[in-house]
């Protein structure tokens, strides 16, 4: 079933859908970076290498998240139900907003839900937290491929 899911990724619908997902995730990750520390301030404080690594990580996370959502959509087409791993992209975005987002936003959010603490020290402009978010997305992709390999689909593939 993995082969069929990957074949679907080459169709026009999935290419457009993946491009839209990628653009939305890039927008989210760039906004979260900007709320934490602007790229010029990050370059001045830590050097341009960290800015380049952050932007590269944003692209990698956006591509991975878009691919995860596209695979989930393909799983719905093939199996008739969504995979549980699709939520890992959402968890990574939520994790990013709550950890390496702007401190004032996080404090206001936590206060609204009754939590009265915040992350005070964010090393390297929150980059370690971005790595954890990338790991969450990778776990989601591994899980999705596992579901595709070991799942049963609504169509008997042996007849093809």
Rounded average pLDDT: 75
Number of helices: 7
Number of strands: 0
Largest sheet: none
Overall tally of domains: 1
Describe this protein's structure.
The protein has one domain (2-151). It has 160 residues and is mainly alpha-helical. Helix content is 74%, strand content 0%. Helix 3 crosses helix 4 (48-79) and helix 4 packs parallel to helix 7.
Summarize the SSE layout with pairings.
Blueprint: H1 2-8, H2 12-36, H3 39-46, H4 48-79, H5 87-99, H6 103-112, H7 127-150
Helix pairs in contact: 1-4, 2-4, 3-4, 4-7, 5-7
Summary, kept brief:
With 160 residues, the chain is mostly helical. The protein has helices at residues 2-8, 12-36, 39-46, 48-79, 87-99, 103-112, 127-150. The longest helix has 32 residues, at 48-79.
Keywords:
elongated; mainly alpha; single chain; about 160 residues
């Amino acid at each position: 079933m993995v082969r069929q899911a990957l074949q679907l990724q080459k169709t026009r619908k999935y290419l457009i859908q993946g491009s839209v997902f990628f653009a939305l995730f890039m927008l989210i990750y760039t906004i979260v970076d900007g709320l934490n520390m602007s790229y010029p301030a990050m370059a001045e404080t830590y050097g341009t290498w960290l800015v380049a690594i952050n932007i590269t990580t944003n692209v990698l996370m956006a591509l991975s998240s878009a691919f995860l959502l596209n695979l989930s959509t393909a799983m719905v087409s093939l199996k008739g139900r969504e995979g549980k791993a699709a939520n890992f992209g959402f968890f990574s975005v939520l994790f990013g907003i709550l950890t390496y987002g702007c401190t004032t936003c996080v404090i206001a959010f936590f206060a609204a839900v009754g939590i009265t603490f915040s992350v005070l020290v964010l090393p390297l402009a929150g980059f370690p937290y971005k790595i954890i978010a990338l790991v969450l997305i990778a776990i989601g992709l591994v899980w999705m491929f596992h579901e595709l390999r070991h799942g049963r689909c609504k169509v008997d593939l042996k007849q093809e």
